[in-house]
Amino acid sequence: MNYVAYFTCNKILNLAILAWVVAQILKVPIYRYTDKRWDIKMVFGSGGMPSSHSAFVVACATSVGKLYGISSPLFAISAVVAVVVMYDASNVRRAAGEQAKVLNYMMEHWSEMKPEILEKELKVMLGHTPFQVAAGAVLGLLIGLLA
């Protein structure tokens, strides 16, 4: 059976999407284990364990490496993109999440009138810890290798 024809007609893209979906679904039981409560919204959100961004790009790079070889220009491009995405997830987006925590604290303790723009709570879980990025990368690697 040619499963590629049933989704995107592209094996590499199918595997990357599969890695992303698996990572998003895994966030729910992992969040339940770590925070002791169920939150189905984790399936649709960013941040959390494992990193679906990492799983997505590493599954793509791994699949490209398997199909075209690790010395191919396609693998080089996909590996560079994977590194940039994982760096962004663990540094830039994580820093934005830390800033959101500080701003949320400031808004909760604002004693005078609040401007309208400060009434909405900011999203705290934007980025990933290095461990979450690594876990997503391992998940993507496994899905890319097992396909």
Number of domains: 1
Tally of contiguous helical segments: 4
Radius of gyration: 18 Å
Number of E-state strands: 0
Structural class: mainly alpha
The description of the largest β-sheet is:
none
Contiguous runs where pLDDT drops below 50 for at least 5 residues = none
- The shape is elongated
Spell out the key features of this protein.
single chain; 147 residues; mainly alpha; 65% helix; elongated
Care to describe what's here?
The chain is an all-alpha fold. Helix content is 65%, strand content 0%. It has four helices and no strands. The two termini are 14 Å apart. The mean pLDDT is 83.
Short recap of the structure:
This protein is mainly alpha-helical.
What layout of secondary structure does this protein have?
Elements (H helix, E strand, L loop, with lengths): L10 H25 L16 H17 L4 H36 L21 H17 L1
Helix pairs in contact: 1-2, 1-4, 2-3, 2-4, 3-4
Keywords: Membrane, Transmembrane, Transmembrane helix
Pfam family, one: DUF212
InterPro entries: DUF212 (IPR003832)
